[in-house]
Design brief:
5-stranded mixed sheet, Immunoglobulin-like, mainly beta
């Protein structure tokens, strides 16, 4: 015979069992194992004299720096740097407000550059903060480019694309390469004229170690030089011109420079 006390105990056990089963079922249903988005984006801070920033897609923080204590540091992507080490980050297709926001404690999270861009499914993109940082308005220019890496990959050559982020380049820039081994005299053209906020197509070149030069169209004077750049077979490289084209110092942080970032697909 089942006493009232035993009935209560049985009911409690059944309730606990049902609750545990429900928790286990919900746990399986709610596991956050969603497939990664098929679109990708990377971020560059090439706004001359711009502060360090964190990049956002809408209100989702895409880049940040962790401090030694395990919390977010008041540092971010510095001028001349790329977010997440230059690697692509997953982003859902659709229209997004892409922003660079101040990482420092003063004016923390203040947007200083914003671009609204439509991200298409399965495509790769780069956002460039560019031009000159306005310290009064606390703003910088910016633009987004698609990164149309050609497929299939040719593993016998390197591929190079040129991007111009220099707002005060008086004319479009051309990119040239000169081999440091073998034929060291011939300048190899790697781009058609590239205006500010634009990119050239990917151009193949035999793998090797090269000196790179950016020049104004129809000029033989090198406006920017970068030496000893290794270009490997089967890799795709984006060479970006950034800085102040009028600076002639070889050490000034704002001098015109060439960034070399691998398109890591």
């Amino acid at each position: 015979m089942t006493t009232p006390t035993n009935r209560y105990r049985i009911a409690a056990v059944l309730a606990a069992t049902l609750a545990l089963a429900a928790c286990e079922k919900n746990a399986v249903q709610q596991l956050p194992f969603e497939p990664p988005e098929s679109s990708r984006i990377k971020f560059f801070n090439f706004g001359v004299s711009a502060p360090q920033v964190n990049f956002y897609a809408d209100e989702v923080k895409m880049t940040a720096v962790q401090s030694g204590t395990g919390v977010e540091a008041n540092t971010g992507v510095p001028y001349g740097g790329a977010g997440n080490g230059g690697a692509y980050l997953s982003l859902a297709p659709g229209s997004h407000a892409l922003t660079g926001r101040i990482a420092a404690a003063t004016d923390k999270n203040l947007p200083i550059a914003t671009v609204t861009a439509t991200i298409e499914n399965g495509k790769f993109y780069s956002l460039y903060m560019s031009g000159f940082y306005n310290t009064t308005a606390k703003s910088s220019d910016a633009f987004v480019l698609e990164d149309p890496v050609p497929l299939p990959t040719d593993y016998t050559v390197a591929s190079v694309r040129f991007v111009n982020t220099i707002a005060n380049s008086a004319f479009p820039l051309n990119l040239y390469a000169k081999n440091t081994i073998g034929d060291t005299l011939t300048f190899i053209p790697l781009s058609a004229p590239v205006a500010y906020k634009s990119a050239g197509a990917f151009t193949t070149i035999p793998f090797g170690i090269y000196n790179l030069y950016a020049r104004y169209t129809d000029s033989t004077a090198n406006k920017i030089t970068r030496t000893s750049v290794t270009l490997l077979p089967g890799f795709f490289y984006t060479i970006s011109a950034f800085g102040d084209i009028t600076v002639t110092s070889s050490t000034a942080a704002t001098r015109p420079q060439l960034d070399n970032t691998v398109n890591q697909r």
